[in-house]
Each structure stands twice: as C-alpha cells, then as structure tokens.
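B., you asked whether I could sanity-check this one before it goes into the benchmark set. Here's the sequence:
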Amino acid sequence: MERRVRSRVECGAACPLQGEYMACPFFEPALDPPPEPWQQRWTHRPRLPLGDCFSGSCHAAGASRPVSEEERELCNQGYARGRCGHFPADAGSDAVRFSVIAEEPLRLIYILEKDHAPIEHGEIHAAALPPDPVMAAQARAFIASFPATPYTCT
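And here's what the prediction gave me:
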C-alpha cells in the first residue's frame, strides 16, 4: 500500500519534523545490540537517525575499524565533520537520511547531505539493497528499527 513520505517522528498536523534522521555516511552499523551502558545513557530515549542506537564500524579512513564508546554518538547522529578526528576533510557528504516511501513492498528514500543541504538522493528497495556495504548496512539498520505500528501525521 502506497503512503506519503513520512518519518518515525510523532508530530502535529503540519508535520514539521518529517525526516529528521541522519547518520554519518562512513558509519556501518552492526545489527547486534550495543552494550548496555550505551542504551541506558539517556533518561529519555532520543530520536536517533537509524531508529535505534547501533554499535558498528567506521570506514572514514578507508579501512574498517570499531567505533569507540566516545565516537558512537557522532556516528549515529551524523554531521561529525570538525568534531570527529577520523572524518575526512574532503568527504563528499556529512550525513545520510532515510525515510519510508512505501511499505508494501518496503521502499526507502535516502538523501545524502552536505552543510545541511541535499546533494544526492535515491530509492532503495528492501529486497535489493545498494551495492555499497556501508549504505546497505545503514538501510538494514533503519529497516530493522522501523516500527510495526507507524506514527502518522494527519
């Protein structure tokens, strides 16, 4: 069933917060749950770019390396340029955003951003993830976090 583009944000009638989900474009999330202290860091769980908090690997320097506890917030929330020592100064994008555009079959839209402006976008089918392993891992993580009962904007 086709639906309008929406995000997982609870919002009012005007839906001003649609699509506020971004992650670092170099972060490859692992689908295993993060360590318990990371999950319990907040009194109120924040809205996170991929739906949940993920541990994972950083591919910013061209090679995969585990993400430390200190870096995990930057990786999960994006826009780490100038705040993360591993983020390349010449990176093409600062963050990647996902939203669901159809549920059956499940399709996503991705938007790469730089300086808070879109620079590239495209569609991802859940049955055929992109060949880029980092983008594919982020799409899998977003899909795994997508709620069974969606938030709707009316």
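One thing to flag: The two ends are 17 Å apart (CA to CA). Otherwise nothing jumped out at me.
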